Amino acid sequence: MDQSSSSNVASVTPDDIDYDASWENRWNDMRKYGPTGRHLRRIVTSMVGGLDYGSVLDVGCGQGSLLATLMPLKPGARYTGVDLSEKAMAVAHRRAPQADFATLDVASGHLDRRFDLVLCTDVVEHIEDDVAALRNLAAMTGKYLLVSTLQGRMRDFERTVGHYRNYRHGELQAKIESVGLKVERVVEWGFPFFSPLYRGVLGAASGQGTEGEYGPVRRLAADALYQLFRLNSWTRGDYIYVLARRP
């Protein structure tokens, strides 16, 4: 795996170690089989499907499921994933062996080149100085940036998994434009079955039930929720996707 980047490799902290280890047994199946992760890939694919790009960067790529989903859309494009977790990128490299990978802390730096399409999903809510991270994302954006995150009321369990914030309505768009990009499209997804219903159930259960290994029964349940979530609105909800471009 390509580990080259500008002077932005993050120092390892105890939280980073926990994050790194979590990809082995907590989040891999959740991202692959869970209904929210599957819909994230469906929505992102829909939003970028008509764009003109030849290079893609997934910031916070995790175990690579988004990269692996996008690669068949444009097989001739160049794909790169960056993350704090070496273990996540090892999984991602097996899932998307044609992609390049590098270690990056987007809160403190950026790669020294631009990509036509930059993706950052489920990351900025975990970064204390999110504007600095957005500024680094913009520095790597040649044409388009797509950011997804949560907005609306924060549940207690979301704080326990490292959320510094859930965004206020319009806040993410304003911050993206403050770093020099122009918002082109906004999807607010999830009403009513993801938010408030599913998130409310997760909140009552302190977030339990989504992590760990997904056996046959859990996969069936996750698939049933995935089908139910197809009925969610794309104009109302707490899962926000913002597509912006470089002017």
Give the SSE layout.
Layout: H1 14-25, H2 28-33, H3 35-48, E1 55-59, H4 65-70, E2 78-83, H5 86-95, E3 100-103, E4 115-121, H6 130-139, E5 141-150, H7 156-160, H8 171-178, E6 182-189, H9 193-204, H10 216-229, E7 239-245
Overview of this protein structure:
With 247 residues, the chain is of the alpha/beta class. The protein has a single domain (14-245), classed as Rossmann fold. 39% of the residues lie in helices and 19% in strands. A 7-stranded mixed beta sheet has the order 3-2-1-4-5-7-6, sandwiched between helices. The two termini are 33 Å apart.
Features:
about 250 residues; Rossmann fold; 10 helices; globular; about 40% helix; alpha/beta; disordered N terminus
Question: How would you concisely characterize the structure shown here?
Answer:
This protein has 247 residues and is an alpha/beta fold. It is built from 10 helices and 7 strands.
Q: Within the CATH hierarchy, at the fold level, what is the topology?
A: Rossmann fold
Unreliable stretches:
1-17
Average of per-residue pLDDT values: 87
Find the CATH superfamily. Answer: Vaccinia Virus protein VP39
3D shape: globular
Specify the CATH architecture.
3-Layer(aba) Sandwich
Number of individual domains: 1
What is the CATH class?
Answer: Alpha Beta
Work out the oligomeric state of the chains in this entry: single chain
How many individual helices? Answer: 10
Number of strands: 7
> What does the main sheet amount to?
7 strands, mixed
Sequence of secondary-structure elements: HHHEHEHEEHEHHEHHE
Rg (C-alpha, Å): 17 Å
The level of helicity is 25-40%
Strand content: 15-25%
> What's the end-to-end separation, in Å?
33 Å
Q: Strand order, main sheet: write it out.
A: 3-2-1-4-5-7-6
